[in-house]
Specification:
single chain; two-stranded parallel ribbon; 43% helix; globular
């Protein structure tokens, strides 16, 4: 299992795109089962991951939205 916890740049599209880029980096450089990529978010992270998942729903198997 690989757990990635990123720091936000903003509450908008920039951080969402960075989250997607980070996931794609791990997929390219580590043996990741792409059918088992999960995300969660709370507060600003919830807002960011909601955006990221809506931009790339094909990238995530499931998303747990804690709050935003």
């Amino acid at each position: 299992m690989i757990v990635v916890s990123a720091q936000l740049t903003d509450w908008g599209q920039t951080s969402a795109l960075q989250a997607i880029d980070l996931m794609e980096y791990f997929i390219e450089h580590f043996p990741v089962n792409t059918r088992r990529i999960y995300a969660n978010g709370y507060s600003a992270g919830g807002e960011t991951m909601s955006r990221a998942v809506s931009m790339r729903p094909d990238l995530y198997a499931a998303y747990l939205h804690g709050a935003s």
